[in-house]
Structures are given as structure tokens and as C-alpha cells.
Amino acid sequence: MTHHATRTLQELGYRLTPQRTLVWDQLREDGGHLTAEELCRRVQSQFPHINISTIYRTLELLVNLGLVKETHLGSGGRHFEVEEEVPHHHLVCEKCGRVEHVHGEDLNGADTALLKTRGFELHDALLFGSCSACATTA
Ligand SMILES: [Zn+2]
Ligand SMILES: [Zn+2]
What CATH number corresponds to the domain at position 101? Predict the structure, then answer.
């Protein structure tokens, strides 16, 4: 759980419709990476009339507030997740689609090396491979 993820929008001082609050709640509870379509289906179980454009508008607002981050996972779709305090990178399993987070220390200084040698500031690395579960069953 991240600092944002433990807080409700009401606590943060935003007056939103229940539909919009539910988008945030779904993202926090899931704790993973969801597309707008997945979020829409979940919210629709409680508010059947909500549509995808409301979901996108809500996500844009949450992104602007710095609560939600749009993440590219290489699949072409737009995924959204709760913004974390510490920047993180993504490991994507090509076999089962599992997504894991890694932080700067797991990169063993690769991020600072890139900055030093190329002046490249690494924000979000996307690494493809096999997760531990898939690697052992292969
Ligand atoms: Zn896997
Ligand atoms: Zn992520």
C-alpha cells in the first residue's frame, strides 16, 4: 500500500460524485494495473449507467491530481495505477502477462549509470521476460 492508496478522495478534500470516487476505490483496492475498460466494468456493477467517457474524465482528473499514473505495459492499451511515492519500473512476463514492480535499487545502479554516461534520466523501464512461476514450469 502506498501513501495515496490509504486515503479516500473525501479525506483529500475533493468533492466527487460516488461514481468518480468508485473509480479511485477500485484502483486502490486492486493495487495493480487496470485499463479504463476494466475499471468501467467494475464500476458498472454498482452504477450500470456509467459510461467509458466518464471513466476517462475521472482518470484524467486523478492523473492531474498526481494520484494516478498512466503506465505503458507494451500491450498497446492504456493502463492506470495508483501513483507511488517512489518511482518504479515494470517487469512484464511474456507468458502469463504478470506485471511486477521493481525499484531503482533492483537495477543495481543501471539508472545512475545511464544518467552519467548518456545524460538519460530513467523514469519508467519496461522489461520483458519470464516471471519466476513461468520460468520454473517451462
Ligand atoms: Zn509468468
Ligand atoms: Zn506499476
Answer: 3.30.1490.190
